[in-house]
Amino acid sequence: MKILIAVHHFPPRYTGGAEWRVYRTAQALQARGYSVRVICIERIDQGETQEVTWRDEIFEGVAVRRLSFNLKNAPDPERWEFNNLWVREQLRQLIQQEQPEILHLFSGYLMSGSVLALAHELNLPSIVSLTDFWFLCRRLTMWRSNGQLSHLPLNPVTCARCLGEERRLFRWPGRLMPQLMNIYWQRQTKRINLLQDRSAFLLHVLNQTHTIISPSQFLRSLFIQAGLNPHRIVYMRQGHDFPELTEERMKKTPAEHLRVGYLGQIAEHKGVHILLEALRYLPQAPLTVDIYGDFSAYPRYVSRLRRLAANDGRIRLVGRYQRQSQLSSILRNLDVLVMPSIWYENSPNVILEAFAHHTPVIVSNLGGMAELVINNKDGLYFTPGDAADLAQVMRRILNEPNLLSHLQSGIAPIKNLKQEIDELEAIYQNVVAAGRQAG
């Protein structure tokens, strides 16, 4: 079977969770004898014309076509964000060249809904793996630029205001004159109509897709609430493999204090500041906090974190880490992981990775995090955005000597990559068979 996988980015330049998941999936499918080709976006800021360039290469055994263009030069950049006709035509050429039997889209971000519209036009069976909220929210997170969470049903006026207030030009008037700015945004009919078109188009192409895979029940229910046919969307948690992880390597190195860690993106919606603020409620507590992640993406936010960490020797802003080579050693030296996100999350890889290493997780009682962690069994909840409540949870671990071992014993085995690919393979077979019957 020939499989064409479409994704916004692909390693080695991009190394996010979705990118590595596609890489692992492609390699695992090839190991089972499938022919796999990946198409991705390499740059959206390249060139001064409407030209799309591409290059083919092999990355660690996986054939990849990388597209580059300048989205700002598109005939209608705002509309092409969700219906990119350049990507559609590039994909058409690749499909004609490769003749795949199935198209598998991850996320939808940057590739846009045009790839699903094309698959439907060509009667090519298609699958979508949801990795974020892009089909519902242009910001991917359903977390507004003013720091508030969005809820369904989404209001296009609110969405227009959220996107507008990403710019300082509108942000400050929105804070100083909220009622006046409400009237302003209600009158932005062109933007509102565009966002309504976005929602209608993306829901339409999703409902033409054979199968949508959601890695969490939370995300599945959200998309059904948004209007997706419930028969099209299935729940399938992602798998992880740690072939070199033995029982001996999972044993924690001894320490006389509580070792708390954060691993992930360093951005405001991830709530790293909540963790650092919590330490102010625990000034004398015997604990350390290590923060791992890329500090280069959001310098203003990182400056805020550095101010919070100043004069507290218990905090280490470690920086980037190599997931494949360093993850196990990092988790071996942590007693508990904290995921303080102030957005919903989906099916966070870092929680599954922590569980694979017998590490309990403290999470915001929200969305996909609260679904993965069972309170008082394999982790603990705290109120989202509440540093004082997080401090109380960490104080509880310090005051209850047996709590950590109790939580460790409650961690169930996670799904491995073989199990995930077994399930995906069955979906592929069903989708292709259904396509042949329809044809």
CATH-defined architecture of the largest domain: 3-Layer(aba) Sandwich
The number of domains: 3
Helical/strand content category: alpha/beta
The CATH class of the largest domain is Alpha Beta
CATH homologous superfamily label of the largest domain = Glycogen Phosphorylase B
Low-confidence stretches: none
Radius of gyration: 23 Å
Q: How can the largest sheet be summarized?
A: 8 strands, mixed
What does this structure look like?
This protein has 439 residues and is α/β, with parallel strands linked by helices. It folds into three domains: 2-138 and 195-238 and 417-438, Glycogen Phosphorylase B (Rossmann fold), CATH 3.40.50; 139-178, no CATH class; 247-409, Glycogen Phosphorylase B (Rossmann fold, 3-Layer(aba) Sandwich). It is 42% helix and 17% strand. It contains 18 helices and 14 strands. The strands form two sheets. It has an eight-stranded mixed sheet, with helices on both faces. Strand 5, helix 4 (114-121) and strand 6 (126-129) form a beta-alpha-beta unit. The radius of gyration is 23 Å and the shape is globular. The model has no long low-confidence stretch (mean pLDDT 93).
Topology overview:
Blueprint lengths: L1 E6 L9 H15 L3 E9 L9 E7 L2 E7 L8 H4 L4 H14 L3 E5 L7 H8 L4 E4 L26 H9 L3 H9 L1 H9 L2 H18 L4 E4 L2 H9 L7 E3 L11 H4 L7 E6 L8 H7 L8 E6 L6 H11 L5 E5 L3 H10 L3 E4 L9 H8 L4 E4 L2 H6 L6 E4 L4 H13 L3 H7 L7 H22 L1
Parallel strand pairs: 1-2, 1-5, 2-4, 5-6, 6-7, 7-8, 9-10, 9-12, 10-11, 12-13, 13-14
Antiparallel strand pairs: 3-4
Helix pairs in contact: 1-18, 3-4, 5-8, 6-7, 11-12, 11-16
